[in-house]
Structure prediction request, 191 residues.
Amino acid sequence: GVDFLSISSETPAIPTTVERTTTVLNEQMGVDVTDHVVIAATPEQAGLTGIDPTAKGVVSDGKPYLFTDNIQEGNELGVFLHEVGTHVGMRNYLGSGNYNWTIKKIKQFANLKDGSPEAQIAKTALRRVREAKKLIPDTPQQHSDHELIAYFVEEAVYRGINPAQESRQTTKLGLVFRRLFNGALRILKAM
Prediction:
């Protein structure tokens, strides 16, 4: 069954391709992601039925799928980290301490009034969580926290931040991405 589903709010202006997504993710993660993730143009091409045709990705029976027809070119890593990192079990691989630290840090960034990149990214991610809660008011807090991390990653990537490179920096964003990136790599290696 479907564990999690990410819907695309708008049709991508320039959808990515299976080939591009595979190349980008393999380079960013430093491992062959196709050993762990199914990358297909559409849910039907991945052999899945009954999936919303606008889905960017889904985790079904514990296996992540990405659908490139619904992913904007350039957003491959953000969507990938969203699906794999957040939905497959980032809390398990980060550990509760790192997971809670990350949520708290993103919320602290959102309260900054300095116009910094981390403040802008966190504010947008928090707004997206609030908008999602309006659509599904009884969303559990744990799911909202997962989504906050996911949207934070996506928004950073949309703004041209490379989480892999940033995770090697000693900046505020670098510290967050180091924990997230290491967690995502552990997840991939465990799959």
